[in-house]
Design goal:
Distance between the termini: 65 Å
Helix content: 25-40%
Number of helices: 11
Largest sheet: 4 strands, antiparallel
Structural class: alpha+beta
Strand order of the largest sheet: 1-26-25-24
Number of strands: 26
Strand content: 25-35%
């Protein structure tokens, strides 16, 4: 027992990941603060690191759908499901102004560049421009033929603003002409629009596409990006304007370079993303998800470099031998060997507790974060010939945990050879008791389908590999034949040398 050798955990290389300046920059955000948020008739304002809201506005008759700050940060305008729009002063709680005119839910509100007007879009297909001092409606645009779900105002011209609708169009309106001046067809229901600070470029998101339009050329399409697998719901621009961010229902936030429009980084989240924003100077990235969680990641502050290097303390032998002691040629340095502690699963394997060792590596903290450890333990149990014993005799909860791990990792090429064998053992053991638990039955059938699909996939790969080997062998024979003919074309003497 004293000579037990710990299980060797195989290290798998991470393929396709390049360390760039964008990777270092965007990975510099701390683990997120998570806030539980539900759709309600209230708007909460959170502090930088506070878990509780520091301000709450609750003067809405129905669910609040949208809100935005004015450029100076003193006023807040919000739209609700009943079609009402309210203007709040941050220092108070009661609304300063109320705008009534929409008949259905308001999904977008924004301040114009002069700070004295508000533009809004609603599900009644209309876009309205409001005057803040008089609380009156100035203009109404009825050019959209479906829900108006997004919009933004120009930061340079107070008369220009853009709206996107489910009728697949993005329109730029001019308050001086009482009509739209540019209209582009996105091709999908538009979920979000964004104007660059210069006003020359417009970005629209809808379906799986993010499209960039040149407004100075009358709405000419510059580039169409299709990097998400599901509907893109929100857009955001970094403070420098050099990076564009998009959030999607595929639970990813993509970061694009605005010079090449290529993806330079990607964030993964636990649920589908509905909203996205960056704080001032990109200090934090805020994401709202369908599971009711508001995720806030703060960027780590750069560590201050010491002006003077730290003085290294003298070693222990300096205190014993003196400061001026010099190592002699015959001196022998003896190091105390460090004691190596076994991991918990190694202790279980050492004491032949095979089921307990397997249970430890199937815990979510290990199976999700470091699946290579779980696979290595399964491989070791299979090598010892006790994998079937470790998997047998499990209740519904325990077998569900094993099935979840297999379903999640069976399709990965690095784990497939080990997990397919484990899946076949589970199918052989628990096939006679199918039908006693609906939850296990569903996962069992799913696992069986994955095993069959993976085996078919590997069979096709082997067939393809065999065809490629045949082609390569044929090419090699042709090259050798042509080389022989070239050498024998010089005469009988050369041919005789080759035969010999």
């Amino acid at each position: 027992m004293a000579g037990y050798k710990p299980v060797a955990i195989q290290a798998y290389p991470v393929l396709g990941e390049k360390i760039t300046q964008d990777t270092l920059y965007w990975n510099n955000y701390k683990p997120p603060y998570n806030y539980a948020v539900t759709a309600s008739s209230r708007i909460h304002i959170y502090g930088r690191y506070s878990q509780e809201p520091i301000k709450t506005f609750s003067r809405f008759k129905d669910t609040a759908y949208c809100a935005t700050f004015r450029q100076d940060g003193r006023l807040l305008v919000a739209g609700s499901e009943d079609g009402g729009i309210q203007l709040f002063d941050i220092s108070g709680r009661a609304p300063l102004r109320q705008f009534e005119g929409h008949t259905k839910a308001v999904h977008t509100v924004d301040f114009t560049a002069d700070k004295y007007h508000v533009v809004s879009g609603a599900d009644d297909y209309t876009v309205k421009l409001w005057d803040i001092p008089n609380s009156k409606e100035i203009l109404t645009f009825k050019e959209h033929s479906d829900y108006v779900r997004c919009g933004c105002a120009s930061k340079l011209n107070p008369d220009l603003f853009v709206t996107g609708s489910y009728d697949h169009t993005v329109k730029m309106f001019d308050a001086r002409t009482n009509q739209s001046v540019i209209s582009v067809d996105h091709g999908q229901p538009v979920e979000s629009v964004l104007l660059f600070p210069s006003g020359g470029l417009l970005v629209s998101a809808g379906g799986r596409y993010v499209k960039v339009w040149d407004m100075l050329k009358g709405g000419q399409l510059l580039v169409s990006l299709k990097n998400h697998h599901k509907t893109v719901t929100c857009l955001c621009l970094s403070s420098s304007g050099q990076r564009l961010l998009s959030g999607s229902l595929d639970r990813k936030v993509k970061v694009y370079s605005t010079s090449s429009y290529k993806v330079v980084h990607s964030f993964d989240y636990a649920a589908s993303i509905l909203s996205l924003a960056l704080a001032h100077e990109d200090e934090a990235i805020v994401v709202g998800m369908t599971n009711g969680i508001l995720s806030v990641k703060h960027r780590k502050s750069e560590a201050k470099k010491d002006s003077l290097p730290r003085r290294r303390r003298p070693a222990y032998r300096t205190f014993i031998k003196g400061k001026n002691y010099m190592k002699q040629q015959d001196d022998i340095l003896i190091n105390r060997p460090s004691k190596k502690h076994l991991e918990l699963y190694d202790r279980d394997l050492k004491n032949f507790r095979i089921s307990k060792a397997l249970d430890r590596v199937l815990e979510p903290s290990c199976a999700i974060k470091t699946p290579e450890i779980t696979v290595s333990i399964i491989k070791e149990l299979n090598r010892r010939g006790v994998l079937a014993n470790a998997l047998a005799g499990r209740d519904e909860k325990e077998i569900s945990r094993v099935l979840n791990f297999l379903i999640r990792n069976l399709s990965q090429p690095r784990f497939a050879p080990v997990l397919i064998n484990a899946a076949e053992i589970i199918i052989d053991i628990y096939l006679p008791v199918i039908g006693q638990s609906p939850v296990v039955d569903k996962k069992f059938l799913l696992l069986q389908g994955l095993v069959e699909k993976e085996i078919d996939y590997q069979r096709e790969l082997l067939e393809t590999l065999g065809m490629m080997d045949m082609l390569f062998a044929t090419m090699t024979r042709k090259e050798s034949t042509s080389l022989l003919q070239h050498n024998t074309s010089d005469g009988f003497l050369e041919n005789k040398k080759i035969e010999s």
